[in-house]
Amino acid sequence: MRVPVLCYHRIETPPASAPSDSNFVSPSLFGEHLGVLSALGFTGVTVRDIAAWQHGQRELPQRPIAITFDDAYQSVVDEAVPRLQMYGWPATVYVVTSCIGGTNTWDLAAPRATLLDARALRVLSSRGYELGSHSRLHRRIRGLSEEDAASELAGSRLELEAFVEAEVTSFAFPYGSHDRRALDAVAAAGYASACTLKRWANRRHGNALRLGRMSVGGPLPAWQLAAKLIKLFAMPSFS
Ligand SMILES: [Zn+2]
Prior knowledge:
Elements: E1 2-3, E2 5-8, H1 27-39, E3 43-45, H2 47-54, E4 64-70, H3 74-85, E5 92-95, H4 118-126, E6 130-133, H5 146-164, E7 170-172, H6 180-188, E8 193-195, E9 202-203, E10 214-215, H7 222-234
Helix pairs in contact: 1-3, 1-7, 5-6
The protein binds zinc ion (ZN).
């Protein structure tokens, strides 16, 4: 069995001022994506579930898939969660911990967007959604000094755990950027999993600290998402 992970950002219609629509999926299209995934027999799981499966601690349902959201935009709660609930699927939301309740200040080219605040994150966590870290400042981990990497990795984990009063075991590399040293730093910071943006579906004996994940954005019709998934399963995994 191989497990795909999908990476979404904002579940909103892109405003005319957006220089790119690659971080946007409209709410109705997101609903269509879930519909086609469900029709194909997929069942939503969290990234924490995948890591536990890889570590031999649990089994997964048949044809599992993990839906993830980077940056923790308000639209995840407003638009994605109600649609996920129709299928009873959980998801993993990756939080930039210095920006909780703020805006996407790291991305100067993109239109401003509200990020989930601590209360909303706690509600999500209490409803079975997994919260993972997406660093403190949304910096590329690759190339950081040891001290800065520790602040981005262990620092953000402790910060998020204090906010949501739950254990945080999953990390997603900002921009997918990582190297050998970054993987070691993620392990040293106590994470059980880390998502990249490498395009492969994950195997049981793969490296949970280098999970493959496919970006989904723009006006991607649901049938094209299905076609991309079929291609993803055909890609060799190098984790
Ligand atoms: Zn991000």
